[in-house]
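Before we proceed, please read the two lines closing this message. Let me know whether the structure tokens fit the sequence:

…
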Amino acid sequence: MKRPFFYLIVLAIILLDQTFKALINSKMFPGQTIPVLKNFFHLTYVQNTGAAFGILAGKQWFLVLVVMLVILFIMYFHFRLSEFDPLQLPMAFILGGSLGNLIDRLRLFFVVDYLDLRVWPVFNFADVMINLGVLLIVVNVLFRHRRGE
């Protein structure tokens, strides 16, 4: 993937993430839930001051530092790997999602979460991108290992 395409993906993820969060923040109040598919999928507005599952609640500056380290790690490997390495796409997903949540932490001092599957803690689009990126990296590494690369 050519470098400009990498940055376009990152930017698109940030813009989508921030647009969804702005809509939720402007149209709903914290704790409000709107059933989309009753008992399966709701939009629920949560102001998350922690990380995944609300762990480290209130530790904003620690979480900002961790995200900055993740960003540096991703950028290091982005430039170290070939432009055409299959890991570039998942790294763009992780970088875009990380930056989307970092913007919330720095601007609002919490992350706007809103996707509620009722059996899982509420999350957001940036979280989906981060987790999809991690999953794709794991799958890629496993296939490379199987092929002996």
Remarks:
- The mean pLDDT is 94.
- Helices lie at 3-27, 60-80, 88-108, 125-147.
- Residues 3-147 form one domain.
